[in-house]
Amino acid sequence: MTGGVLYVVSGPSGAGKSTVIKKALDKVEGFTFSVSYTTREKRPGEIEGEDYFFISEEEFHELKEQGEFLEYAEVHGYYYGTSKSFIKEKLDEGFNIVLDVDVQGSLNIKKEMPYDSVLIFVVPPSYKELQKRLMGRGTENEKDLKKRLEDSKWEIQRMEEFDYLLENNDVPESVNRLISIIIAEQLKISRIKDGLEEKVDKFFKYDFS
Ligand SMILES: Nc1ncnc2c1ncn2[C@@H]1O[C@H](COP(=O)(O)OP(=O)(O)OP(=O)(O)O)[C@@H](O)[C@H]1O
Ligand SMILES: Nc1nc2c(ncn2[C@@H]2O[C@H](COP(=O)(O)O)[C@@H](O)[C@H]2O)c(=O)[nH]1
């Protein structure tokens, strides 16, 4: 796979990852969202192929056998996986990619692509606020809600292994911060793979105008 960078956004369920990612992607060009596979049920308002590719467990295991996943994990009782072919296609088209992936998946991507991935951990200001947001979203039954809150306790402990911490208190501010991280990363000298020599040549060229 060649070209762009994978911006991997993670953090507990209900932290606000999708909210912040969607708004940030509306404001930047040359970036696209990685549409994952999942075995969980579609929520009202979710769109096949935009939010996820919704598949059965059997289909998931078939794709796994075919080596279709860049990473996959069981998250909050369901399977989720990042499509290797989707990522390859978008990178080949010249996009940078934003992913919304759980903690295990993020760390696996880092292992796979250490130089071309940036890991961002999103946290709400408190556990109480996390509970409020998840309950307020109203998408999980009581059992799933409990599992997601329980899982947040170990997820938070892995924060140290990420590159950036994004405390999501206020959505517009978090969107700006995510965009700031992206801009800073894109400006790293080590990421400017093509054209550094040309830039130096151009700098020393006489301007006869
Ligand atoms: N800064 C914020 N302040 C208050 N509410 C927020 C904030 N950010 C997001 N929310 C709300 O919190 C709820 C959870 O947000 P969202 O669905 O984006 O979380 P998520 O991290 O993507 O969760 P999941 O991992 O389950 O997909 C939503 O109802 C969203 O509108
Ligand atoms: N390891 C992976 N985790 C993923 C992927 N796509 C989403 N997720 C994570 O799952 C949970 C729950 O998401 P929800 O949409 O059911 O609320 C969340 O933490 C996502 O980040 C994936 O491809 N791989």
Can you give a write-up of this model?
- The chain is an alpha/beta fold.
- It has a domain at 6-34 and 96-204: P-loop containing nucleotide triphosphate hydrolases (Rossmann fold), CATH 3.40.50.300.
- Helix content is 44%, strand content 21%.
- The protein has helices at residues 17-27, 57-65, 84-92, 103-112, 127-137, 142-157, 171-186, 196-204; strands spanning 6-10, 31-33, 36-38, 52-54, 69-75, 78-83, 96-100, 117-123, 164-167.
- The strands form two sheets. Strands 2-7-1-8-9 form a five-stranded parallel beta sheet, with helices on both faces. It has a four-stranded mixed beta sheet with strand order 4-3-6-5.
- A hairpin with a 2-residue loop joins β5 and β6.
- The chain starts with 5 loop residues before the first strand and ends in a 5-residue tail after the last helix.
- The model has no long low-confidence stretch (mean pLDDT 95).
- The structure holds adenosine-5'-triphosphate and the ligand Nc1nc2c(ncn2[C@@H]2O[C@H](COP(=O)(O)O)[C@@H](O)[C@H]2O)c(=O)[nH]1.
- Residues 13-19, 133, 136-137, 168-171 line the site of adenosine-5'-triphosphate.
- The ligand Nc1nc2c(ncn2[C@@H]2O[C@H](COP(=O)(O)O)[C@@H](O)[C@H]2O)c(=O)[nH]1 binds next to β5, β6 and α4.
